[in-house]
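pinned: reference chain
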Amino acid sequence: MEGLEISEVLLSNVKKESYSERIDSFYFQKEFLKNKYSNAIELSNICEINSGTTPKDRDENLKNGIILLKTDNIRNGILTFNSEIDYFFIDNSTNNKMKSTELKNDDVLINIVGATTDVIGRCSLLSNDFPKANITQAMALLRIKKDYQDQVNPYFLFTFLTSKWGHKQIRRIARPTGQYNMNLQEVGSIKIPIINFDLQNKIKSLLFESNQKKSLSQSLYGQAEELLLETIGLKNYTPSQEKTNIKNYKESFLETGRLDAEYYQQKYEEIIKAVKNHKEGFSRFESFIDNYSTGYPYKSETYISENGIPLVRINNITKEGLDLSNAINIPKHDLYLSEKDIASENDILISMSGTIGLSCIVREEEQVVINQRIMRITSKNFNPQVLSLILNSIIGKYQLEQIGTGGVQTNISSNDIKNIIIPIIESTTQEKIAAWINESFALRKESERLLTEAKEMVEREIEKGI
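pinned: its structure tokens
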């Protein structure tokens, strides 16, 4: 029968193939049964494998301490500290209770729980300069045992897990039980081939260079944001810690229609006051919008993994730009289902749900379509790079955060976004800020290219042994 795939597997081999004795058809698809490589060893033999915990008594408002990494921080790259990221934190007392999973340099992290196959199996390698950190129960740390440190280096391990050969094993193992998950025994069953150690060191050099360019990219982006805030008079701004803000009925509900206390936090008023007092003036965001759309509800049953048009969802938007490494695709014949949601070069994308207000720019080489709950904006009379930076800075973030408070699910509307105030920035300053952002993006792309080169080097070497 056309399209029917059958794999015949002995029961004895079923038990050998899966620690959990799975017998579902997906686990035994032919793509998983063929192309097995020689000279491979299970991770349980070469690595210490542990998962963290999610402390129930963690202070949600803690702004410093020991970083508690979550699945969203794990992005198939080297994990370097970025001051722009809103990390979760735990105190020393909580960290001491989780001492077995306190991270060390060159630990490899892998997500073992995720709502989608985009999340589960994502990996990161902890850089040498990353601050003290721990992990939740949704990820595992892999630490190479001393007896194998002269055979496998962590840079190769990380690169293998993000390669097509590592990812294929992860896709096979991940169990869709409400959400996808793997247990530690299943992670330990992943087989990694032992390749020439000199080649592993070449991979390490590529990743090291990639990380240097990534760090410089983040530094340049930080300089651009610092100049922006200095221009507005917010360079050394520290949010008010005042617990109360007294408003009468006229100043509150009659003016805003809001009675929730979170809306009236003083930090929001301080930012709005600074923008309104800016010497160059300010304007509503809508005055810089030429046209916009708010995404299209493409049907999930039409999604494809490759050879289509990337569909931008909220998890693809980062401050540094679009991250399409795990993007799903729609068929090319669906491209014109909603022409207004085809993004063009220099369009601004803004998340309207979840992490609201997160923004990035569409680059010239990226043909993409926009999913629902993402606002696509073509700007006018303002550099789009700088507008996106304003949205990601405390200027835009606090205004949109204020609007989004008070609900169970954080959402904002296109009218909310259009109504925030934007400081007028003199053109030469805009040009300087945009130049730093463009240079930052170029370095980020080069960093990604080096990661890809390392991954392809691993894949070619493995394919020689198949």
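why pinned: The chain has two domains: 35-190, 234-277+281-424. The chain has 14 helices and 24 strands.
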